[in-house]
Design a protein that fits this description.
- It is a single chain.
- Helices cover 80% and strands 0% of the residues.
- It is built from six helices and no strands.
- 2% of the residues are buried.
Length: 88
């Protein structure tokens, strides 16, 4: 992750006029990707959502807590634990 002050960002926009448009396109694409990923889970049972999550975001699955994963998938922590046990 990078951090930049608002003043420095405005300075970069002045020096590189194309940068603001480029950053906006990147942000929009990231948001569209996130929406598409969330929609992919709709209409699936919890086991399929978890399997899709592991396939699409394995690095996230390794780094975040199980509580957060369960919340993201819209299932209880107990259900997630049971799914993980059944997949082993």
């Amino acid at each position: 992750m990078l951090a930049i002050s608002r003043a420095r960002l405005e300075e970069l926009y002045q020096r590189l006029p194309y940068l603001q448009g480029l950053l906006m396109q990147l942000i929009q694409q990231c948001l569209l990707d996130k929406i598409a990923m969330r929609r992919a889970y709709l209409g699936q049972d919890s086991a399929m959502r978890y399997q899709q999550f592991l396939l699409r975001q394995p690095e996230v699955a390794r780094r975040v807590s199980l509580t957060d994963v369960a919340s993201y998938l819209g299932i209880t922590l107990q259900s997630l634990s049971r799914l993980r046990k059944n997949l082993r």
